[in-house]
Amino acid sequence: THASVRGTELAVPENLLRLSVGIEDVEDLITDLEEALGGL
Prior knowledge:
Elements (H helix, E strand, L loop, with lengths): L25 H12 L3
């Protein structure tokens, strides 16, 4: 959605982490995050 502003001051930073959560159990969210970020 931000392709049109790539290379400008409005561009989304490369190091941005977007996290979208809903009504999941907090323990499930923590486990998922640990698994996802464990490979970094």
